[in-house]
Structure formats: C-alpha cells, structure tokens
Write a structure and sequence with these properties.
mainly alpha
Length: 264
Amino acid sequence: MLQRELLYAAMGTGFTCAATILGAGLVFFFKKDLSHTTQKVFLGFAAGVMIAASVWSLLIPAMEMAESQGQGVLLPVGGGFALGGVFLMLLDRLLPHLHIGSEEAEGLPANWKRTTMVVLAVTLHNIPEGMAVGLSFSVAARSAEPGAFAAALALAIGMGLQNFPEGAAVSLPMKSQGVKASKAFWCGAASGIVEPIFGLLTVLIAGSITGVMPWILAFAAGAMIYVVVEELIPEAQLGEHSHTGTVSVMAGFLIMMLLDVALG
C-alpha cells in the first residue's frame, strides 16, 4: 500500500513541479520583468488557491479521517494546524531568504548570493504545497472511493495553475537583473523541486505512524495559511490601490473551490 501511495504522491507533486519548471521556461521567450500589477495578480491568485485548498483539500478531510478513526476532531485538527504554522514561522525566522522586489534579506544573517536567497524564499512557499499535494494523493491511494482521486487531481491542478506564474516570477526578475537566461531558468525550476521532495517525505512519515494522517493534513493546512497571511496577501496588496490583489485572491479561491466541488 505504501508503494502505491508514494507512486500517487510522486505523480501529483511531479505535475506541480513541472508547472513551476514550465513557468520558469518563459525566461527564454520574454525579455522584460513582470509588471507590479501582474505580480500582484499572481500573488493574490496563489493566496486564494492556497486558502481554498487548505479548507476543502486538507482540513475537511482531516476532520473526516479523525472521525473515521474514532479520534476526537479538535486535538488532531487544531493541534496539527497550529504546529504547521509554528513550523513555517521557524523556517521563516531561521532560513536566510530574500523576497522578489525586496532589498532586505530575512532569516539568520548569511553571506549567500542574492539569487540563492530569492530561490529559498519561493521554496518556503512550495514546502507546504508539496506536503498538501502528496498527502492528498496518498489519501486517494488508500481510499476505495472514486471521488478521492478526483479531489487529489483538483488540488494538483489548482496548485499547478498558481505554480506556473510562480516559476516565471523567479526567473524573469533574475534575467532583468543581469543573470543569464539559463541560470535564471534553473533557479526558477529549482524552487519547484522541493514539492516532490517534501511530498514524498510527508507520505513516508504518515504511512509509518498509525493515526497520524489527520495531524499531518492539518499541519500542511496550517503551514499554507501561514504563508498566505505572512507573505502572499501583504505582497499582493502593495501600492495605493489594492483592488487588483483583492480580486485576484477571490478569483483564486473561487477557481480552487469550483475545481474541488466539480471533481471531488
């Protein structure tokens, strides 16, 4: 069973990783950086997708799974959600990283290259995404219900939709700052590789400990919500007029919700 779960998780996270790589490939076709408005649209859309995915693809399944295992709902779902937020907060405080468009690095002081820290900033976003997609496909592999795979597929599609522009958001600014197109592409692609890595690691942990799956599903949700509130929404709201970012968040939420309802 574990081998099947790993296979499903590899397919799902491989798809989302490929979307990031394809987005990074735009660096070979476009010379200019993304406009501030376009960046706000992408960031807002990603935030909306992640909020909806946290609810429909992670928290609700965590509650249902906890009940089916005879556990109480509050401790595994509430505790896992809180631990996920704390985990991302610690990474945010410890890992040196630099957000696109920012001049001041975050995390512990380090004499690392700017390109390295930019890639690490996007990598922080992709860790909970990889966990979420991997876990969703792991649940589908365990379940006998046909709708489980469709729900996992909906999540992968939603994450892929927001990963495509995310890859471009890493590679294009690097090229505009003088980095060679090939290096900018590999930096953008590298930011997505963390998704299958963390997706498979999470499935391995969940499969080795009985009853831990509701905790880990909620953990991934907490990690994603932390990213949304700490970084994506504030960055999408930059500037005097925030309507673009707000509409993008709602559009991302709506599309992810409809995907989950239609396919799941």
